[in-house]
C-alpha cells in the first residue's frame, strides 16, 4: 500500500490493514504464540498510559504491549483477558515523515514486531541488541 504525496494521511483503518498484513507475514510459530493478543491502532496513547510511563510528549510512543508476557505466565494465573498490542498512528506517521528512509509498511512492521518481542518477554535492551546483531 503506497500513498502519493498529495494523499490524505493514512487512517486508523489503513494502519490496521498494514498491521494485519505484517502479522500475516510472520512465520507461523510467531503468529501462533501471539494469536491471543489483540492488536489495536489508536491515534495516541491515552493520558493515563503516558503518565504511567512518564512520557510527556505523546509523539514519543509509537507502540505499547500490555499484558503478562509469555515468560512470566503460569497455569496458576487467573486469566486477566488477552494481551494487547497498541500501535499509535500519529507518532508512527510523524516518525515516518521525519525519517523518510523507510516505507510506512516497514515502520508499522517494525513497531509491531517490537511489541510482539515484549509479548515474548524481551526487554527494550534485548530487542535493540537483536536488531543491532541482525
Automatic annotation (TrEMBL):
SUPFAM superfamilies documented for this protein: Metalloproteases ('zincins'), catalytic domain
One protein family per Pfam: Zincin_1
InterPro entries, A to Z: Zincin_1, Zincin_1_sf
Domain of life where this protein originates: Bacteria
Signal peptide from the UniProt entry: none
Alphabetical list of CDD domains matching this protein: MMP_ACEL2062
Coiled-coil spans in chain: none
Protein's recorded name: Neutral zinc metallopeptidase
Organism (species): Caulobacter mirabilis
